[in-house]
Amino acid sequence: MARFFKEQDIDEFRDCFYLNTSSSGQITNVNELKIIMRSLGMSPTLPELDVYLKDKGGKLSFADFLDVMHTHSTKEKIPHELLTAFEATDPRRTGLIPTRDLKHALNEWGEKLDPKETESLLRETNSLGRPQVNYRDLIRVVSAPVPDY
């Protein structure tokens, strides 16, 4: 599975894997797998996690984990899913969302951002102070890899 990931990604996966597994160096339960995959930016469902663990006999070595990450990364297309969600709320296909609606969603729903985080995100999309946000720019910003400083 190493051929599907960059060396830098594999190093990050390895660090997270060994930081969150038991002393045996294997994932032995769904909770460990969930924590590791979500820490790495994936959003697997509990049924998906169950299947991944059962397919590998209830234990995942690091090599098995790379296989799971590859399988899941081919399924999960977050930028496309975000675009589909925004387009569903944009019947005229303008590519824009009112800034106040976006702020409300980011600050009040789900995993809430604080106002400073929202302002920073709007600044990155060049939308700070504007009445509307181009949601394609927003998706590009939130889907970009986290910088490694």
Explain what you see.
It is a single chain. The protein has 149 residues and is mainly α. The protein has two domains: 2-75, Recoverin, domain 1, CATH 1.10.238; 78-143, EF-hand (Recoverin, domain 1), CATH 1.10.238. It is built from eight helices and two strands; from the N terminus they run αααααβααβα. Strands 1-2 form a two-stranded antiparallel ribbon. The chain is elongated. It starts with 6 loop residues before the first helix and ends in a 6-residue tail after the last helix. The mean pLDDT is 87.
Biggest beta-sheet profile: 2 strands, antiparallel
Which structural class should the secondary elements be placed in?
mainly alpha
Q: What order do the strands of the largest sheet run in, or round the barrel if closed? A: 1-2
**Helix residue percentage:** 55-70%
| Average pLDDT figure | 87
> What are the secondary-structure elements, in order, as H or E?
HHHHHEHHEH
* Total DSSP E strands: 2
Low-confidence stretches: none
Radius of gyration: 18 Å
Overall domain count: 2
Which CATH architecture of the largest domain is right? Orthogonal Bundle
Describe the global form: elongated
Share in β-strands: under 5%
Q: Quick one: CATH superfamily of the largest domain? A: EF-hand
What gap, in angstroms, lies between the N and C termini?
27 Å
Query: Number of helical runs?
Result: 8
Level-1 CATH class name of the largest domain:
Mainly Alpha
According to CATH, the fold-level topology of the largest domain is: Recoverin, domain 1
